[in-house]
Amino acid sequence: MKIKSAKFIISAPTIAQAPPPLVHPEIVVVGRSNVGKSSFICRLTNNQKLAKVSSTPGKTRLINYFLIDEKWYLVDLPGYGFAKVSKAEKERWAQALEEFLAKREGIRLAVLLVDCRHEIKESDLQMFAWLTANALEPLIVLTKADKLSKSQLAKSHADAAAAFKLPKEQILTFSSVTGHGLDALLQRLELAIEA
Q1: Residue 87: CATH number of its domain
Q2: Which of 1, 2, 45, 121 is the most buried (most CB within 10 A)?
Q3: What is the pTM for the complete model shown?
């Protein structure tokens, strides 16, 4: 699969403001704040201006919809685990995220982004368990692969497989800077969309 067109559709604060369900299949992107979701989306779509990349964690506070090749939606969800917001705001984000993932019809795949430079966090394991419990197929992608040496990345990959109790082949490594892992990722997305 090669992505030819990508356009921003809407930023929705809740599921009620999202586009009508089941019009197009949806691939959702979830991950901790500062995991590189916006850079991931820009690299995936080959459009550096599509998602706003910020050095400030927790920038994405809404459900952002992008229409890809007029055929499917790429959905950017608010990051979780960001400490520098109020407890009430954190709870509001968590509620919106959970409601969306539990009730939204048409989700074909949940891409769970994890920073390869850090140990797997409890919140990542919780999100993986929550997705699985809600019958959503999670694809784990280790981001920022360019920041590690080959041996460090191999260790991070093995550690992630052990933490999530998955075969290594089911976890992808990816770099928004170099494009490492892009072809394998596009292949997985295509399979999910066509399923």
Answers
A1: 3.40.50.300
A2: 45
A3: 0.91
